[in-house]
Design brief:
4-stranded antiparallel beta sheet, alpha/beta, binds N-(iminomethyl)-L-glutamic acid, globular, 8-stranded parallel beta sheet, single chain, binds fe (iii) ion, about 400 residues, 16 helices, about 40% helix
Length: about 400
Amino acid sequence: MRELAIIRDGAMLIRGETIEAVGTRSDIEALLTSDTHIIDAEGRIVAPGFVDAHTHLVFAGNRADEFEMRCSGITYQEISKQGGGILSTVRRTRAATESDLLATARKHASWFLRGGTTTIEAKSGYGLSVDAEMKILRVIQQTDANTPLRCVPTFLGAHEIPAEFHGRTPAYVELVIEEMLPLVAAQKLASFCDVFCEPHIFDQAAAGRILEAARRLGFGLRIHADQFSCSGGAKLAASLHAATADHLEHTDAASIAALAAANVQPVLLPGSVYSIGSKQYPPARAMIDAGLAVVLATDFNPGSSPIASMPVVLSLACTQMKMTPAEALTASTINAAWSLNLASQVGSLEPGKLANFVIHEGSDYREIPYFLGTQRPVAVFAQGERVA
Ligand code: NIG
Ligand code: FE
């Protein structure tokens, strides 16, 4: 993860939406023809577009009110117990029209692109009914089709127990397994299935049933695991050979060993730790030392992480989790691409891959996490076109 394969005084030849050659300036200059259009990065860093492998792209409204409550000392979990949290966004998202949600999603897409992110994973999960989950997945599909941001869809119908199923978790699990998953599969609206695995929401047994059903239908698997307690989420991910286990703030050494043995990629979300005002960052160093291909992502959502900027996440990874800037860049590009089965197309600048790249301000990649809080991509390109 520390070897970035930097080419000094480098250049790329792009044809259409694809990278055709990568090398030193003189290698590439030898390939120029009279009609080649030249983009001069003027000695700046050129890096792959970020791949953000965990976002909740589609939601209505925001929770600035809960942000203020947390600032006065009430915790994220206390707000959830009082009927706020995810369920307050569910109420607003259910009430929103599909075209309103699409307009908001397009605005969010522009935030990602401006920060240098050209590919995201996008989860449903603020509908929690058959119709509302399908509505959100169609909005993700539309955002993918109608903006330059590539969106990989994930079905997260098991994000929370909706109010009308309060006290009847098994009945909601049945609805997810018997109705939602088959419909999402039939309409090909998601590549992955995710579950929020926590003791009082979907415990290990319920999460396991949903994910096994999803696997039988051909979905890849991702899990919100061990966010608030070490409750078997990571171990479940290992036993199912899931693509990823996400969050992992409370994951213990035995669970890390299980993830390594099963080749499950950890997706770490320091923006959500920061935003809920916790100090419990996931043990990134132990995971890297165990040989795990760690991924960094924003967890962009209206509650625990209103952050769409990957440079901010890289900065938090370096200062709070002691990852090196090189490790953070690897985790947010090629490792993230692997976790989405997209490593042959995005995540690095290599011949044959999509021309998704960012010209960053500065001449040293370490400046990306170092200068926190200013938008420093000078130009962002997706599939060969300038998009920000
Ligand atoms: O990844 N933990 C569950 N889901 C989100 C939070 C969603 C919300 O607060 O709206 C997360 O942190
Ligand atoms: Fe999340």
